[in-house]
Amino acid sequence: MNPAVKHALSLFVSLYALWLLLSGHWADPLLLGLGLAAAALTVFIAWRMEGLDHEGVPVSVTLNALAYWPWLLWQIVLANLAVARCILDPRRIGPRMAWVPASQKSDLGKVIFANSITLTPGTISVQLAGGHILVHALEGAGIDDLRGGEMNRRCARVERPLAGDGRTGGEGT
Amino acid sequence: MDAILIGLSWVLIVAGGVFSVLSGLGVVRFPDVFTRMHAASLADTLGAGLIILGLLVQAGIGADLVGIKLILILVFLLFTSPVVTHALAQAALRDGLTPWTRDGTPTEAGLDSTVEEDEALAPDALRKTSGEGT
Question: Does the keyword Chloroplast apply (chain B) (predicted)?
Fold first, then answer.
């Protein structure tokens, strides 16, 4: 299928699903029709703004992310506890700023990695350039963990096309 | 059954409140803007997350889909708050703030903590961007 059509269709379907979930009016044909029109108009505007690409509508990334989020949420909980301990005893902190390698190939993958770093309390991504991310960490161990590379690898896995897409030649990003 | 659910939701909401208070305490206690941002992100993640989870236990999905809206609030919060934190941290660095360290010596990547200096320590690919005026 033409990638543009695929992106438009998946954006339309997810927008309409969002509209249905938010409105809760599932019986009135007039409202359902208006919802369809609103979703279609949004897709049209996105197309006019040239936002209908693999970055604006990251289909395969969305599905991969579903496997990544539970792990990320658990990391966030652990990091919250670590930072809470630092707040109760500020003598523990030893802030450090250093570059951490980011091996993701696409911009979107790097953004996912940088945002994951920032979302985890105790580490903030300050700058992103040339395959490296400048990270400020509340405890020096935060930098060492990131250099260990587990989050980096998992984010690289998120940006990979789905197995099915890969066999048919990929999306041609 | 109801009592258990309400008890569970109270536990979650109170735990979320505790994290939010800790977050505020950290903002007061920590020494500089970067470390304070770390403290603030506590309220963004577990603080807000536990409170919304607690509300979710009480509301359920509900006939008026309140639960869905609560989940969406959390999802949007988790997507937008790191962007804001990143923008704030970069603005602070570009403005020339020196990250606080325990012994007062600069951290390895922030000699003078200006962005240009950071880039001088980073791989060559960075040099390109240092030319743009700020």
Answer: no
